[in-house]
Amino acid sequence: MARPPSRRPGQNRKAQYSLFASYVVAVTGALAGLLLIIIAMFDPTGFAVIRSAGAEITRPVSSGLKELVSGIGTVDERIAAFYKAGSQNVSLRRQVDINRTRLIEAAAIEQENVRLKKLLKLVDEEKDEVVAARLISSSSSSTRRLARLNAGRSQGAYPGMPVRAPEGLIGRIYTAGPNTSDVLLLTDSTNVVPVRRSTDNIAGISTGSDDGSLTVKSLTAGRNPFKPGDILVTSGTGGIYQPNIPVAIVVRIAGDDAVAVPLASPARVEMVMVQRPFEASLARPAGTATPGTPPPRTAPTVTTTAAPAPVEAAAPAPPPADNAASVAQ
User: Fold this and answer.
1) Long-range contacts of 35-43 (CB under 8 A, 24+ apart)
2) Contacts of 319 (CB under 8 A, 6+ apart)
3) CA 156 to CA 181: how far, in whole Å?
4) Cα gap 164→274, rounded to integer Å
5) pLDDT confidence of 141, banded at 50, 70, 90?
6) pTM value?
7) Closest CA to 113 of 169, 166, 170, 151
């Protein structure tokens, strides 16, 4: 029968120290556990403080162990994703392209909503009837500065009506068809607009320069009162344009004139409004119907024939003087 191995470490001091340390650790752990049980039974508040402190001390270790366990648990998923990376990249690129297109569309819709909100607010503020329409084209190569509007007489747009955008004045309708009309822009040399400076009501006359700018002449004698940065608005003189519509901003001074640029550029404006003239009686000659107003109905003319008056018999003519004397004798 073989001799059982001795549990004593023998003469090996290292083994003795290890065995002693394990005994000390075991006894210390048992005593610490017993102490914690006693504290939990007789002082729950103090045990809660100790438990919180222990949780704070072991938090980094717990977090590291959790990440380690999670990493080990997802090894198979990572291996599968590595082999599927090519197809996933293609799918993600397609999704990015779709999202980019949607973002561009959303930005365009947001910009359109801002313009429409401005236009609707402008419509609410106006008391006269208006027609909302779009600028669909412009004749940049023509000798006249015109823009095409997708509204005509069928929608209530007539020649002479002002056209404005939320940013400011565009011009006035030059010719109108059934469903389209041409707008004479502010930059046309034949378009004259009475304006005033918004700060001190100094009056002037704005005329197009056929190059995208405006020439503003002051109506006051003496030195040119305008300076760069002045905002010009309609004065209401003439009866066509309503007062206080933004027109242009002065950019430089050229002798006795001021050069300005329109605040509302037809190249950047889509939605516009067609307004009725400010004072229709002054905007149109006497005896002409107001734009947008149907012609008055005239009653049919009835011709009656009067009966001929009776003709009286003519009295006999008196005899001559000689015949009368002979009769008397």
Assistant:
1) none
2) 327
3) 11
4) 7
5) low
6) 0.52
7) 166
133 is written with which tokens? 């329409």
The residue ranges of every structural domain in the chain are 20-73, 131-283
Residue 262: pLDDT above 90? yes
Task: In whole angstroms, give the CA distance from residue 187 to residue 166.
Answer: 18
Residue 2 DSSP SS3 = coil
Tell me if 204 sits within 8 A of 217, measured CB to CB.
yes
Contact between residue 278 and residue 236 where contact means Cβ atoms under 8 Å apart:
yes
| Region at 201 (left for phi over 0; alpha for psi -120 to 50; beta for the rest) | left
d(C-alpha 92, C-alpha 84), whole Å: 12
pLDDT for the residue 230: 92
Q: What is the pLDDT of residue 328?
A: 39
CB 292: neighbour CB atoms within 10 A? Answer: 19
Token digits for 80?
A: 């599968």
Q: Chain-centre distance of CA 319, in angstroms?
A: 104
pLDDT value at position 166? 87
Rounded CA separation 127/117 (Å): 17
Alpha carbons 297 and 286: distance in angstroms, whole number: 18
What does DSSP assign to residue 127? -
The CATH number of 131-283 is 2.40.10.340
Q: Report the alpha-carbon distance of residue 53 to residue 43 in Å, rounded.
A: 16
Q: State the pLDDT at residue 126.
A: 58
